[in-house]
Structures are given as structure tokens and as C-alpha cells.
């Protein structure tokens, strides 16, 4: 009886020791790969997904992401063992018990000087003023487009980069169909909005271009007005 109990204590201690060791190694592996971890969330499937694979551990999932140059976020569900990789650095996510999300911190690609890097994109904040159309042409001449702000984290990032007392042109317009806002370069409908209260109001029926940082939010404005502007280009082209 006594022997048996001693034996199980030894087994338990060994098991505990093993678990502690593997936990430490797990932490170390993740840190080496420069991930930021969010527990209890997983990425929702979207058109920015790279792949879904069944892998046993979240470390294997993190390793998959770090091998993919375009991977910015990954999530692993410990119940289904599903690993999702996503190019977006602002993916839609949901709470899920036992899931874990990782954001890769250092991607090897970098932006040219004067451009700000966020996720897999580079942004240029102009300090000359142009009409919305001329701003769009200028961005295109530099191999970029007027910025398309598609998530709150991209929106928040750009707010920290602009001069807080100026309004900037970004790529949204409803010039073709009143109140149907599209991103002009990708020709996709806006799905994320940050309109200022009571905007867009199409004041005097002539406001069809998207002004960023109007009262720290978005506004519709006359396209011919001169504004500084924000260009965006992907690092992955
Ligand atoms: C405008 O931007 C250019 C390029 O980033 C910079 O060299 C110049 O100093 C800026 N001018 C002003 C007035 O901020
Ligand atoms: C835009 O393109 C022009 C011509 O290629 C180049 O001289 C200029 O430096 C570029 N501007 C930026 C901000 O990259
Ligand atoms: C922001 O813009 C205002 C108005 O043009 C200007 O006076 C100020 O110097 C700018 N601030 C910075 C940090 O560039």
C-alpha cells in the first residue's frame, strides 16, 4: 500500500516536471519567433486567409506562420487542432475557449524610406495638398493607391501617424452612386466605417470623397478641395 502511494507520487512529480519543462520550451520557442499571443480567441475565416491545416500543437501552427512570408496572424484551436493562417494584421476574430491567436512581429520585408509599415502594407502621408483626383493619380504614379482603410486597427494606426489638426484624402468615394461608398482602386464596397456624427451628409449635394481625420473620424467632402493625402501599397506584390 505504502509503496504504491510512493510510486504514484513519484510518477506525478515526474509528470509535473515534464509539463513544466515543455511549457517553458513552448514559451521560449514562441518568443524566438517573435509572436505576440492572445489567448481565448481565434481568427474568423475571410478572404484574407492563407490556409487552414490540422496540426497538433499551437507551436506547430506558429511555425507554419513563421515559414509563410505573407502570414501576419495565425490561430490554433486546441479542441479541433485547426490552424488558420491569415495575411491580415487586423483579422476579424471571435472568442473561443481553448483557442490561441498569434501575431507575427517581424516580417522580413520593409518599406522604402518615408513610408510607414503596418502589417504587410506601406503608407505614405503626403504633406502637399491636392484635389482627391490628383491625389489618386499621385499615389498611382508611385506604384500605390489612395489608402483603403478596412479595419479599426488600420484606422487607429493611421490616426497615430497623421498630423492631428489636418484632414487627409483616402480612397473612398460615392461619386458614381450617391451614398454607395466604394474604395476606388480595389472597387470594393466599404465594410468598415468611422463616420463622424451626422456624416456623411452630402452637404449641398456635392460631397463625394472620403476625408480622413475630420474631428478624428471620417467625413464626406467636396472632391475638388485641396487636402494632404495617404497612399498605401502592399509589400506582397
Ligand atoms: C514634406 O515631406 C518631405 C518628404 O517626406 C520632407 O522632406 C519635407 O521636409 C516635408 N516638408 C514639410 C514642410 O514638412
Ligand atoms: C514617387 O515616385 C517618384 C518618381 O518615381 C519618386 O521620385 C518619389 O521619391 C516617390 N515618392 C515617394 C514618397 O516614394
Ligand atoms: C500640423 O499642421 C498644422 C497646420 O498646418 C501645422 O501648423 C503644424 O506645424 C503641423 N504639425 C506637425 C507636427 O507637423
UniProtKB/TrEMBL annotation:
Pfam families: Lectin_C. Keywords: Disulfide bond, Signal. SMART domains: CLECT. InterPro entries: C-type_lectin-like, C-type_lectin-like/link_sf, C-type_lectin/snaclec_domain, C-type_lectin_CS, CTDL_fold. It comes from the Eukaryota. Residues 1-26 form the signal peptide. The keyword Membrane does not apply. Residues 118-232 form the C-type lectin domain. PROSITE patterns: C_TYPE_LECTIN_1 (PS00615), C_TYPE_LECTIN_2 (PS50041). This is C-type lectin domain-containing protein. It comes from Mytilus galloprovincialis (Mediterranean mussel). The lineage of its organism: Eukaryota, Metazoa, Spiralia, Lophotrochozoa, Mollusca.
Amino acid at each position: 500500500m505504502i509503496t504504491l502511494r510512493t510510486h504514484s507520487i513519484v510518477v506525478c512529480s515526474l509528470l509535473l516536471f515534464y509539463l513544466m519543462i515543455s511549457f517553458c520550451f513552448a514559451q521560449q520557442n514562441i518568443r524566438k519567433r517573435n509572436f505576440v499571443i492572445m489567448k481565448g480567441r481565434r481568427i474568423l475565416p475571410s478572404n484574407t486567409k492563407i490556409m487552414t491545416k490540422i496540426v497538433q500543437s499551437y507551436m506547430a501552427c506558429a511555425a507554419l506562420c513563421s515559414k509563410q512570408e505573407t502570414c501576419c496572424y495565425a490561430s490554433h484551436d486546441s479542441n479541433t487542432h485547426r490552424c488558420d493562417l491569415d495575411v491580415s494584421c487586423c483579422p476579424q476574430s471571435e472568442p473561443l475557449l481553448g483557442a490561441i491567436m498569434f501575431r507575427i512581429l517581424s516580417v522580413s520585408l520593409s518599406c522604402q524610406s518615408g513610408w510607414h509599415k503596418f502589417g504587410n502594407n506601406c503608407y505614405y502621408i503626403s504633406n502637399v495638398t491636392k484635389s482627391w483626383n490628383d491625389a489618386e493619380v499621385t499615389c498611382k504614379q508611385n506604384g500605390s493607391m489612395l489608402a483603403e482603410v478596412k479595419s479599426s486597427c488600420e484606422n487607429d494606426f493611421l490616426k497615430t501617424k497623421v498630423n492631428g489638426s489636418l484632414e487627409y484624402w483616402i480612397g473612398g468615394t460615392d461619386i458614381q452612386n450617391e451614398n454607395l461608398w466604394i474604395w476606388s482602386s480595389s472597387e470594393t464596397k466599404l465594410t468598415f466605417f468611422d463616420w463622424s456624427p451626422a456624416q456623411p451628409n452630402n452637404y449641398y449635394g456635392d460631397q463625394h470623397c472620403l476625408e480622413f481625420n475630420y474631428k478624428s473620424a471620417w467625413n464626406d467632402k467636396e472632391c475638388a478641395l485641396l487636402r494632404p493625402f495617404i497612399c498605401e501599397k502592399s509589400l506582397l506584390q
